[in-house]
């Protein structure tokens, strides 16, 4: 029997998450939590319904999952709202740990497409805060729940490359309010590349027939992360972009296995 609990982490209608929990023996604790971050090129028309099947599947396999909604470009998100929401949404787990017996020593993120970008970016939150120190264009400082690892599913991990390729008709500029020539600080702070080197494991999983997000978004990040304390790993899986969020597809099953490895 899966339990579902929805909680806000802010006042905006898009600032909420839904906790999917498997049953526990009396007195036991959930062994880790997975933060599911949906994609959709950061646009408002795509929401947490994309992550719900993944969160439910994880709970059905004994894993607590937090399906996170956030403001996107077009409904109050963009820079810095989307990014601040991701950190605030992850931090909300601290308030849920005791009532739901969550182990916050093992919090990992599973993010698809734009959600992969946000998941890997959040893993570098301390480094981003250092880069933004004293910069009026930076995010507010936050110290909260830290990620212990990330599985990125065809993530848009290279914002400079995504802008150059004009992915999804200018999705990066739409997120950040304009081109990098106009907002260089935003592009630097918003890029997972800028947070390298990381000290947490990142699996950059990419579908081999992905025509929405090219594999170089993952391979480029992995190449740049070679000097990290824990180098990122590239994992190729069969299927197209959406096979990664099809809970019956081998591409998704590989991601679930990697999540389990991170939790162990």
Automatic annotation (TrEMBL):
Domain of life: Bacteria
Pfam family, one: BD-FAE
Classification via SUPFAM superfamilies: alpha/beta-Hydrolases
Residue ranges of every copy of the BD-FAE-like domain listed in the record: 31-219
The keyword Hydrolase is annotated on this UniProt entry: yes
Single GO MF descriptor: hydrolase activity
Keywords: Hydrolase
Official protein name in the record: Acetyl esterase/lipase
Source organism (scientific name): Pseudarthrobacter equi
